[in-house]
Amino acid sequence: MHDPDAFRRAQDFLALVPKPADRKALAKAGIADVDSLLRYFPRRWVDPGTFTRIRGLSDLEEGEDVVLHVTVVSVASRRMQSRRGTISTVSVTDHEGGFVDAVFFNQPWIGSRLTEGLRILLSAKIKHYRGRVQLSSPSLLTADGRIAEDQDTGEVQPLEPTRPVPVYRVAGKMTSSRFHTLITTALDTVRDSWFEDTVPEFLRQKHTLVDLRTGYEAMHRPATMQDVDAARPRWAYEEALALQTVLHQRRKEHAALSASALPGKDDGTLAAFDRALPFDLTLSQMHAGVDIGAELAGDVPMNRLLQGDVGSGKTLVALRAMLQAVDSGAQAAMLAPTEVLAAQHYRSLTAALGDFAAESALLRQENGVVIALLTGSLSTTERRRILIDLAIGDIDIVVGTHALLSETTIFYGLGMVVVDEQHRFGVEQREALRQKAGGKTPHTLVMTATPIPRTAAMTVFGDLDVSTLSHMPTGEKRITTHLVPLARYPQWIQRVVEVVGEHAARDEQTFVVLPRIETAEPDPVTGVPQPGVEDYAAFLQSFPSLAEARVEVLHGQMPTQDKDDVMRAFSAGDIDVLVATTVVEVGIDVPNARVMVIVDADRFGVAQLHQLRGRVGRAGDESLCFLLTHTPDESEAMERLTTVTDTLDGFQLAEYDIRTRREGDVLGRAQWGGKSSLKHLSVLRDEAIIRNARDDAEELLTVDPSLLGTPALARLISLIFATADEDLIEAS
Ligand code: ADP
Ligand code: MG
């Protein structure tokens, strides 16, 4: 602890929380100093106007949360009969004279703290037990049910809450009221220097934000709920500023790295390839191509995200970039998340190259490009040959999984890397890449088919430049999606299978996708069967309409050779129905596949369903997607499925996804490298805040690159990003 400031903070904390057991409980909740204690914000506030009446309790549903302001009538504690531990029953009454029992388990101190006549605030859940209502898992909200003493008369007054009461998430033995006591003590006693603001004054003024101390007061002891609302923009802005500051720093760090310039050649392979293309590039492919081409030509490493829906032509954009690298005498690598996808990329790149693809360096004609697939399933001899060719520069483009970055792969001159999926490199991988690129940083292009709304991109991928392919080169696909609610209409499965059979009879193929490989026990609640891949294939074949059809299975646990064989056979049209897991999710192009059947569709996320659906049909052809589900009509899952059924717009679905799921889950900490996900900021709602913070961060760093003037902001950033890089390594 060399930072004297940090030392003072630790001293303050020790003084506040003298008991080691409490400190341990706090540390478990991620609170080890005063900063994080004050930043432990209430989960919600209870407004005194919203207390529940005891008389109304029996009308409430099991599990509902209530808050009561009541008087203790009696307390009885006893040992439990069937289990170890104690049970304390606290009988309480309110001003209308209703009675109810609150039941505390294993909190023997309850008896000594709650005495008859004490006024308390209780937060609890409704439980119906033997025909009566009980309050279960209750917690005491006011500071230990303290009794306020009247200053003048010395008379004991019950505590009558008139202000909103903050409710904190409990941590071990630290109850909500204990948190409140600790935090308010901190607010009253810690020294002023300690409320040094994370947001510089000129920025607070510019955006009319409350200062740090006012912000804390408003969260922890607001006079009214308006106080809370008035403070909130400050916390959102602070978070945005910290985030944008880090992203801006990263952009600058990145710009200081050096890459090999890959300017290409005027009369090189790329030029010849473009001349031979049987179609024109779309406008957005051209834009992306110009940006990428210019960045490759420079010696600052490209760090770009290429996003676009399935079929928008990303692969072609990536290939053209790789050709520019090859024209410059460098090698390019494409990394895929799985071996199936690597193989698929290899096939589509080879197909796109057409006559430009050369078998080997020996047979390389003018403008010939040698492309290789490096996977785990190669024989030792083949593998060794590819590794040697890579090392001596006889391979121009190599496709593989992230295993390509392992130590045994040596490149002759790696110039650029294309990464398929939103995978961010951790520190180790970045270092591995640099070593493979002769100490330089290779240019990087990340492809993603999961569109990200603009502000989200600005937040999450703020250190990346973004190219978006916004229209479909071959026209929109016409996919009709049908929701099949099997809970209500079990017989509809008949019709779905018939449709698959009709397509098979016309030599049009079907994907059937399941959420699991192995058959699982039927759902214990609903009794719905949970078939695996093999069983479902057998089930389908038991229908007369599919008796003639050729049905095969594909899943991730099959040997690689078998997987490849099945995929090849399916691509060649030798299989009618492929029953598979999500190994088919991204990138598998089988133009003749017209039907996608997703079994237990409620098990998949919105983005995944949209990806899967994109696997069927060529533009112009009618294709079909069936979402099969047993989920009840009134469920969240059903709403999700209806949304997917109603729109084909990937961006709209992405927004829906972010709106309905916790943003942190969607945006994922590994994506922006933060320790925790966003706490106060909403990438959809707070677009203006994010924009402002982005400009402000840039301005701030231009004037004060090391944040010497705002040490509190620097500290907050290290608090948020402390373990970011370790996290990335774990996640990858
Ligand atoms: P993505 O990788 O974004 O899913 P692809 O690059 O695989 O999309 O392109 C989908 C299909 O569209 C491929 O068959 C590709 O050859 C074709 N394609 C790409 N760009 C164009 C274009 N500008 N005009 C016509 N067809 C195109
Ligand atoms: Mg593709």
SSE topology:
Blueprint: H1 4-16, H2 20-28, H3 34-38, E1 44-46, E2 65-79, E3 86-93, E4 99-105, H4 110-113, E5 119-129, E6 132-140, E7 148-149, E8 156-157, E9 165-167, H5 176-189, H6 201-206, H7 212-220, H8 225-256, H9 269-276, H10 283-297, E10 303-308, H11 314-327, E11 331-335, H12 339-353, E12 357-358, E13 369-374, H13 380-392, E14 397-400, E15 414-420, H14 427-436, E16 443-448, H15 454-460, E17 465-469, E18 478-485, H16 492-505, E19 509-513, H17 533-541, E20 551-554, H18 560-571, E21 577-580, E22 593-598, H19 606-613, E23 622-629, H20 636-646, H21 650-660, H22 663-667, H23 669-672, H24 687-703, H25 711-721, H26 724-731
Parallel strand pairs: 4-6, 10-16, 10-17, 11-14, 11-15, 12-13, 13-14, 15-16, 18-23, 19-21, 19-22, 20-21, 22-23
Antiparallel strand pairs: 1-9, 2-3, 2-5, 3-4, 5-6, 7-8
Helix pairs in contact: 5-7, 7-8, 8-24, 8-25, 9-11, 10-11
The structure holds adenosine-5'-diphosphate (ADP) and magnesium ion (MG).
Magnesium ion binds at residues 314-315, 587.
In brief:
The chain has 732 residues and is of the alpha/beta class.
- Low-confidence regions: 143-158, 664-676, 723-732
Q: What's the total count of β strands?
A: 23
Helix content: 25-40%
Ligands (ions, cofactors included): adenosine-5'-diphosphate, magnesium ion
Structural class designation? alpha/beta
Enumerate the strands of the largest sheet in spatial order, edge to edge or round the barrel.
12-13-14-11-15-16-10-17
The helix tally amounts to 26
Strand-residue proportion: 15-25%
Give the overall form.
globular
Please state the average pLDDT score: 84
Describe the biggest sheet? 8 strands, parallel
Span of the ends, CA to CA: 31 Å
Radius of gyration: 31 Å
